[in-house]
Amino acid sequence: PGFVFEVKDYDTVGEDESLGFFSVSARTLYKWPDNERKVFALKPLPGETDFKQGKIAIRVRRATEYDMEFMETYNSKQTSLRSQPKMKGAAVIKEVLTKNSRKEKDGTREYRVRPGPDPKQQEATTWLAKDKLEQECMKASHNWVDIGSGNLGKIHLEVIKCDKLPNMDSGGNFGIKTDAFASLVYEDCFVQTDVISNCLSPRWMPWSQRAFVFNMMHTSSQLFIAVFDSDDTPLNDHDLCGRVSIDLSNFMPDTVYTLDYNLFPTAKSSPRDAKYGTITIRLRLELADEKTLVLSNMKPPQSVYVNVQTQKDFHVLRQTVEGNLDTKEYSLSTITAYCDELMSYLTIYYGLEDAVIRLFLWRGGTEVFIPAPDIATKSIKWIGFRFPLTSVIAFLSIINLVEKPDLIPSFLFASAGWLLVLTAGWRRENPNPFVWCKNFQYFVFALVFGRGPGPQTIDPKQWAEVKANANNSDYWQARVVRAEEKAKQRAEEYRKEQEEYLRELEEIGDVTDDLVEYSAGFGIDPIRAYLFPIQQYLGVACNWVRVVKNILTWEESYISFLISTTCFVLSFAVFFIPWALCIKWTLRIIVWCAFGPWMKFADIFYFSTLDNSDTEKERKNKMKLEREKKLKQHKQETQLKREKAGKLRDFKQYMFGEHICRVNILKKDRYYDLPLDTSSATPYSNMRKSLGTLCIEEAGCGLTRIEGQQLEGELIPKICVVPANKVRAGQVTTRTELLNSNSPGKIYSGKDDSAISAAIKVGSILVGAGAITMYGIPLLSYIARLVIPK
What we know:
Elements: E1 2-9, E2 17-25, H1 26-30, E3 36-41, E4 55-60, H2 65-75, H3 92-97, E5 101-103, E6 109-112, H4 122-125, E7 127-129, H5 130-137, E8 144-148, E9 154-163, E10 180-186, E11 189-192, E12 211-215, E13 222-229, E14 239-247, E15 255-262, E16 278-286, H6 290-296, E17 304-308, H7 311-322, H8 332-344, H9 346-360, E18 366-374, E19 379-387, H10 389-403, H11 408-428, H12 440-449, H13 473-508, H14 528-552, H15 557-574, H16 579-594, H17 599-607, H18 613-656, E20 659-663, E21 680-683, H19 691-698, E22 703-707, E23 711-712, E24 718-719, H20 755-787
Parallel strand pairs: 8-12, 8-22
Antiparallel strand pairs: 1-2, 3-4, 5-6, 6-7, 9-12, 9-16, 10-11, 10-13, 13-14, 15-16, 15-21, 17-20, 18-19, 23-24
């Protein structure tokens, strides 16, 4: 017994043609190593054509219970699509005919709560006054949706409200307004809130679908939020009101952020007019171990794709991630936006120019305080003045490098790391606390202690008074304008010189040796074939520049820290290498080996034989075989990658939907959105709870779990499952610090030691016991002899 595999050419009209077959015995299958791929030649069936080229690749492993369940579902023709949480909203006709506000006898106006009242108290929450509506929407959410495949941390997010949304409905003259819902994309997660119909300033209530818990896979991942006008008709897409991309990497854990953002149609190009409304969200990061987060950035991020079932959902998904500008399509406006972006990076050049001038001209930059006696008060007074400390350090370093050139490699690495650290410090000097980033000291603290220094506190509008000084971009824009004016002035002077020169040439006459006459040609769009490749190259260049800029400015703070740390480690490592000695002996070896009289023997025994036709032919054949071997290996690797990508795509389409969208992990948008000055941050504090209450919460009460779309495995991939309960054996709960003092589980509130920490503790006990034995006991006996008389 065994298997017979037959490969056919599918024909929609006639009969399928056999291309060959391959048979494998059961004994071979039983001895087959798991997940090993083997290639076999196809043989023709009796009476069929022998093509002598076909091959079949087979991968085998023993089936698991999941494999058998999957194949049973697949063979029964049942759909395997995983459903996402659906938004709820009333029908359009019903909403048009429904009254949304009323006036009470006391003159107060009340508004109907949408999408519906609280199921537990319907009468009290069907109609609410405006101030009561504001208070109610700010309360904690009742139901949460836990989604995603990551295990580095959790992002708790609540969509609270929107204000001043544009009216996207065509029936605005008849009182029909935007039916707003929010779409959220984070890594492999795609969710939507409930629809708040017929409202330009929607409020999502705590009992509605508005609260989500995203599981983090990578620290650089952005959170994309977009607000749409819902359209129930099947032929029309949902209309984009505006979107925002939120950088989570510089938010502090254990902090509750209430953030207001302006909505924009895209983050890839200008203009960025604040006329699309605002959105308010509540955000909290729950990170168990920040050391793990830092070390996870040593691996490159995985490619993340999100699948949806319908074209309408795909339209929402793509615009949530990318906005309303499709940079993959040819457009002159896109090329112009790319050119404007590259020109905007001139501010970096002018910043470097200013830094170099301040460095070499010894212009003061660092404020230094020195003590000075105050005769009037007979005390010491600290006097501050601007001191060119950076110039002093640079001067001392350079004169030291001139005398000791061996230190140049170490100095270069240290300078690169120090520049990154100074960039983080420059951002920390900004009065806007939402511009601040996690600096080098923060990450060192996290690596040593496993957590950052602590939560963050930001009062609303505490930095609004210094908003004009919060960003010095106006200064750099002025520098660009002045530079452009100078460039125009030089261009005008050059133009006048050229006109004068051409007038002189006209007197001589035009002379040319080109015999070809050129014409402009004709076409419907003659420049598309030339400009579209340029647009693609500009897009790649802009993406790379954005990534590099984000690393240099600590937008990618985790990666910036790892690069700066690597620079410091390399600087310390190469400090002990005698570079002058290494270079000297390397040159000596090259000179003595390549220019000595023994090269005559190399000519006799090797180079002279190359002129021999047989030897030359043998050498070329050998090179050809090596080239063919490398080409074959490259083809095989490419084929494996193509097979893996194709299989993963087919499985994702079968399990999640046929429409697929890529979600960037590294930040590649031109603009990044900052919270408005009405945003705030407060430390997160958990109330003490009983053991029963805490266990019910950890069991998932009020929480709906939805797995992400990341797949793992070779033959039949399966969804990466995040454990719902991470309580270790011997523990009653994962958060014993939240238990009441009289709770039974409070008796054991420690954490299990790792193998390294346990070894360190045991070793320290042994070392301490040995030290006491060697020094403590003799000391005690000596003291006893002194105290106790003989």
